[in-house]
Amino acid sequence: MTYLLDTHTLLWWLADDPALPPEVRALIANPDNGVLVSAVSGWEIAVKRALEKLQAPPDIATLLDEEGFLELPIRFSDGERAGELPLIHRDPFDRMLVAQALAYDATILTKDQTIPQYGVATFWR
Predict the structure, then answer these.
(1) What pLDDT, in 10s, does the model give residues 53-92?
(2) In the predicted model, is pLDDT for residue 106 greater than 90?
(3) What gap in Å lies between CA 52 and CA 58, rounded to an integer?
(4) Please, is 70 exposed, middle or buried when counting C-beta atoms within 10 Å of its C-beta (0-12, 13-18, 19+)?
(5) pTM, whole model, 2 decimals?
(6) What is the distance, to the nearest Å, from the Cα of residue 81 to the centroid of all Cα atoms in its chain?
(7) Are 124 and 26 contacting, i.e. CB atoms less than 8 angstroms apart?
(8) DSSP assignment letter at 65
(9) DSSP assignment, residue 10?
(10) 3.40.50.1370, 3.40.50.1010, 3.90.220.20, 3.30.360.20: which CATH number matches 2-123?
(11) CA–CA separation, 76 and 106 (whole Å)
(12) DSSP-assigned letter for residue 107
């Protein structure tokens, strides 16, 4: 299976935060699963750091490599798809994750209750 980490999921994984459910932790840790991290998460983290709404490790890109996660770039077609989504979710970062999950047939690991309304596969328990 291929999983796309929502930004909070990524940060909780890196911090070994107990808020990350054991079932989600097991999916991420399973070497048979592909784990994607979108460039949009890097953008979201940087924006929230600048607004002083978030503290996160300084060099997450290096940590992604160490964890064996695959970086997912944002393509022009991803931007178009995100822009064409109905306005169910107002967060542009989450809309991009939905667009990329649809493009890559990935399940989003997220606690966000709005994202499943797009018909994209999600998991959280």
Answers:
(1) 988 888 899 999 999 999 999 999 999 999 999 999 889 9
(2) yes
(3) 14
(4) middle
(5) 0.95
(6) 17
(7) no
(8) H
(9) H
(10) 3.40.50.1010
(11) 18
(12) E
Pair 109, 4: CB distance under 8 Å: yes
The pairs formed by 89-97 with CB atoms below 8 angstroms and a separation of 24 or more are 89/114, 89/115, 89/117, 89/118, 93/7, 93/40, 93/41, 93/43, 93/44, 94/6, 96/38, 96/40, 97/4, 97/6, 97/38, 97/40, 97/41
Q: Where are the alpha helices (DSSP H) in the chain?
A: 7-15, 22-29, 39-50, 60-67, 76-84, 92-104
Domain boundaries, the chain: 2-123
**Long-range pairs for 45-49 at CB < 8 Å and ≥24 separation?**
45/7, 45/11
- Name the token pair of 71: 């970086």
